[in-house]
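Internal tracking record. Fields below are filled automatically when a chain is submitted to the structure queue. Please do not edit lines marked as system-generated. If the sequence contains nonstandard residues, flag them in the REMARKS field before resubmitting.
Queue: standard
Priority: normal
Entity type: single polypeptide chain
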Amino acid sequence: MVVAAIVLGLVPAAEAGTVRKPPVRIDTSFPGGNIVVDSIVGDTVTLHQDLRDTASNWFYWYFRVRGVAGRTLRFCFSESNPIGTRGPALSLDGGKTWSWMGTNAVEGKTFTCAFPREAREGRLCFAIPYLESNLRDFLKRRQRNRHLKVETLCQTPKGRRVELLRLGQFDGKAEHCVLLTCRHHACEMMANYSLEGLMEAVLDTDEGRRVREHVEFFVVPFMDKDGVEGGDQGKNRTPHDHNRDYDGEGRYGSVRAVRELVTRQLGSRNIVFALDLHCPHIRGPLNEKIYFVGGPEQENWARVREFAKVLEAVQRGPLRYRAEDNLPHGQAWNTLEGPPRNFGRWASAQPNVRLGTAIEIPYANVGETTVTAANARAFGHDLARALAQYLGLAAAPDSR
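SYSTEM-GENERATED OUTPUT FOLLOWS
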């Protein structure tokens, strides 16, 4: 969390018989907050995202604004355009629930928000946040689930706990292990909703019964926990980000701990599936579809494509995945050569990992479908259903 100074709006002196508007106040003094305010003049706020230690321009921002009751405010980004394809996300209840403002609120790098008269504050973000508090809520609802354990992978440099969740069968005799990671890039929040949906399907549903009885899951929801809670971009962090840390000794404790988990603690176990969940850029045709990312290892890519066909066949949710949208190595941005520095390539090279890859889940829309927390979770259910089918653990069809 980076605390921004409260900035007061410059409000003209009230004329006789008029009510002076309260000043507009903006801050980031909460988990995930990120913004730099250039100026506030009347009802116009000029601002830009805080790039901090990011080596290139990126688009994450999240702030709170007060003094908004009954006002229509204009928010103008002074540098790059970090507004996505469904406009900003808005919360009027302190970040508990969110809705997309839509493109009608946006003009270029500016968006306009009309706040209700009863609004005490608004929270605005480039997408729908997912933070440690969201994970705590998920875990609290399942604190008596005998197929769930909450452990600690490591501590962060700032003293935060990096959670390691274990799902399914814990006796060490499960035929299969599955490793799931998320938030190697701190800003890629929507992927967590799909991860949550996958865990929900394994833990709570009848379809997931055979999976939780025969598979042991190891899940790291926040690889860059300090970045998530601190409101960092995470992507392209200098000198390199968490997803470029799998070659050499490793700069980040969470990456070193995952490598230790795979190579030593699970060295003799069969990790049938290792998946890293990401979000792409915020706009453009390639960034408005779900796809798996290929590496140069052809045998592993063939297994990814096999799983992809299963997912395409069994999916039921509103966010439609198409196997033809996958991104093989050597195409578009997927051209990284040299040692396996990212999770997907590193995992696929481990002798005890059968299939290692990454998936990109868009922030705001998949084709014409708007992404929400609910349908992103539904896609997680689709991933769990595909995994059950892939492992031969799908529930038998009801014969009634």
